[in-house]
């Protein structure tokens, strides 16, 4: 019964960490709200898009503002001194729709959404632009397999850490499964996904500074060390706990932070 409770706890921790990572990541849509012409306007702006087509940006307006408010996109390539480009947004019923031009894989744009009406103007995000990164299409089976494998790696990592705190549980099997899943997800499927999306298999140490790659590397090294601690004797529980904590911290780092980019 105790083992079942540990698995349930491990699942809860894994789900919470995965949710936190996704919601805080730099590619998750940016949501907010502003007050304009006495009305509250909620918005959700994309920060990631496939480069198979231009990126659609939509702002929904309150019904009583439809037809009274115009909008435009102001954008340029990220981290360049290029002049800003202006594109008008089109009105579609109670929505304003604009399109950001597609970029090469790993290409980024910084952009603002401006609203105009009754001699007033507002930027939805104030003085801070939205950064959007474009990516190539990724095979759904490969992507799903990568996500599931990394989720299971985290689940087994947490479970191994809990087992290490329980002196009656055997650790070697859980540690081996964690290392195997992490290797498959982070060093086989992960590079394939990254190659499809951004044109490179690996952009972490020593060739780059991609945190997604680097945190997988750190977690993998932690579990290799934990397994090595039991090479000639029972695996050290303190090393397993340390590896589990390192992996949890790594998973809490937002996905795609300092990810691949071209300018």
Number of helices: 5
Could you give the count of β-strands?
11
Pick out the low-confidence regions. Answer: none
Radius of gyration: 23 Å
Helix content: 40-55%
On the 0-100 scale, what is the average pLDDT? Answer: 90
Order of helices and strands: HEEEEEEEEEEEHHHH
Q: Your description of this structure?
A:
By secondary structure, the chain is an alpha+beta fold. The protein is built from 5 helices and 11 strands; from the N terminus they run αβββββββββββαααα. It folds into 2 domains: 139 residues, no CATH class; 99 residues, Sandwich (Immunoglobulin-like), CATH 2.60.40.10. Strands 3, 5, 6, 9, 10 and 11 form a 6-stranded mixed β-sheet that branches. The protein has a 3-stranded antiparallel β-sheet with strand order 4-8-7, with no helix packed on it. α2 runs antiparallel to α3. The N and C termini lie far apart (55 Å).
Q: Descriptors for this entry?
A:
263 residues; 5 helices; Immunoglobulin-like; three-stranded antiparallel beta sheet; elongated; six-stranded mixed beta sheet; 24% strand; alpha+beta
Describe the secondary-structure layout.
Blueprint: H1 2-24, E1 30-36, E2 39-45, E3 48-50, E4 55-60, E5 70-77, E6 85-88, E7 90-92, E8 95-100, E9 108-117, E10 120-123, E11 130-135, H2 140-164, H3 172-198, H4 211-228, H5 237-252
Parallel strand pairs: 3-11
Antiparallel strand pairs: 1-2, 4-8, 5-6, 5-9, 7-8, 9-10, 9-11
Helix pairs in contact: 1-2, 2-3, 2-5, 3-4, 4-5
